[in-house]
Amino acid sequence: MRLLARTVVALLGSGALAPLAGAFYLPGIAPHDYKIGESVELQVNSLTPTLNAENKLESVLSFGFYDERFHFCRPEGGPKAAHESLGSILFGDRIYGSVFDLHMLKDVSCQALCQQTIPGKDAAFINDKIMKGYNYNWLIDGLPAATLKIDDRTEQQFYSVGFDLGSNELGQLVPHFNNHYDITVQYHTLDAVHHRVVGVIVTPMSKNTVMPKDPSGAVSCDSAEPMNLHEDKDNQVVFTYSVNWEESDKSWATRWDDYLHAVDPRIHWFSLINSMIIVVFLSAMLGLILMRTLHKDIARYNSDDAEDLQEDFGWKLVHGDVFRPPRHFELLAVILGNGYQLFWMMGTTLVIALLGFLSPSSRGSLTTAMLLLFIIYGFSAGFNSAHLYHSFGGISLKRIIIMTALFVPGSCWVLLMIVNLCLAAAHSSAAAPIGTLLGIMALWFAISIPLTVCGAYFGFRRKTIDPPVRVNQIPRQIPDQPWYLRPLPSALMGGILTFGAIFIELYFIMNSIWFHKVYYVFGFLFLVFVILVITTAEVTVLLTYFHLCAEDYRWHWRSVYTAGASAFYVFLYGILFYFSRLRLASYASLIIYFGWMVVACFLFFVLTGTIGFVASHMFVRRIYSAIKID
Fold this sequence. Notes:
A 5-stranded mixed sheet has the order 1-16-15-17-6. A 3-stranded antiparallel sheet has the order 3-8-9, with no helix packed on it. The protein has helices at residues 2-14, 86-90, 120-131, 265-301, 306-310, 329-354, 365-376, 378-391, 397-425, 434-461, 487-500, 503-514, 522-549, 555-564, 566-581, 587-624, and strands at 34-35, 39-40, 42-44, 48-49, 102-103, 108-118, 134-136, 138-140, 143-144, 146-150, 157-161, 163-164, 166-167, 176-177, 180-189, 194-205, 235-247. The chain is an alpha+beta fold. α6 packs antiparallel against α8, α8 runs parallel beside α10 (434-461) and α13 (522-549) runs antiparallel to α14. One of its GO terms (cellular component) is cytoplasm. One of its GO terms (biological process) is vacuolar transport. It comes from Coemansia guatemalensis.
């Protein structure tokens, strides 16, 4: 442990982990009390795509605010980067200071920022982003600048994070570029001196403003002519803004309420009720099997009646082969070990989020927590992989350590590097910096792998899981199986039931990821996760019982891909989501979208496959330990 601590300290001291310095930094958590006239910083973030005029998402690429092609006003000496968490960096946040000059309770009317010359080539780039519905993303005191919108169903006002880069209404030939910003900052008064920011609303406008020839003259923002960027010549653009301070009754503790707008809570309740019906149905079937069929089978198998013994059939006949080590058990042990790692990571993250420790004002905190917990639970991966591997008869500790430490994390790392290369090739700000990637690798090799080695050492030394019955030397011949119990049909049947319990909540998660919406209903998500675990376990146990009754003892791998088949339906849902909500125009966006879907589905397969195996293993050991074997 001392060597590990010294390694991490050395990495921090050398600067290799400098991009991770803000990994535990939680911006916006502590309230800031401003005095009248005190400077209030406005920070700018990457521009992100949203739905276009046809209600489609055409791109998943984000671009930095200070990308040279936008020609936005830059502070003297260059923009100053803000502290960001590791998760914030990985998901494309690039937060910098700005040239906006805001002071508490000091209204500003039509203040000029700067005048920029935008060449025709860059004008074409900006117009393309307006057509694709890109949004500005600003922050004041940790609160995102929002647009005030009204829900069509409930007629309630809510804050939609971000505001339009320009306007592109249907039938409009040339998009209008928004170069004027009416900023309304809501504040809550604590006393006569101190005030707190509780809301930020920006109304962007397109104005063909002309800078006065006299340097001392004031800029007029009364122009009714919109700012159109011509692609065949240089464009002179004047950026202006106004600031209005508005007192509000909202307290600092409730300032996120207007941002966290639920589409309709009844949809989440419908999802839970739908999932609960599936769970009740499966529980009833499983209870029927356990309480009636299995009870009768065990009573008959343990009977001393010779006639009953001659009529043995079904799952008792394979007792000598059911605990035979499966083929490729090394890979199976590795997948199960990483599945344990994912399970504990997901469960711990959801509990932390449910208790309110992951505030939406702490950008990227959810992703940071998931990544750090995954690294810490490397001990669980090594322990369970080595224990199962040794129980299956494996003797090479080094082999299982290498496979556990590299297979699942390494596969995800390769896929994410491909996605990151595509982001870098598209000049997107979402491409993770080299320093951040090196920092993650340092955490992987300096913390996760040593924990995996430590866990594997203790798991290998732990007492093996001995089968309750003796294993025959010669494998029993497996009879022909009905079509519905063959590997592919049975896996597809099992996967659809598990997917049916989560697909509604999956829609909100997909919207949160690709449409940059704030996801915060962790109470519903925690319940859905519990239902997912129960459903996966019950479905896999049922199908395992059916396979054993058909005298097919190859339940180890079958329980994994029967439970993990739900990942196939998740991927199909991703394809459906792509055709219904997205219209990605570039190959880079396609690779990024489907690359992330492959990573998510692969990890979901490992997670659900492990749940299915553990449930089947407990079930099989329980029923075979309850019968008498001659």
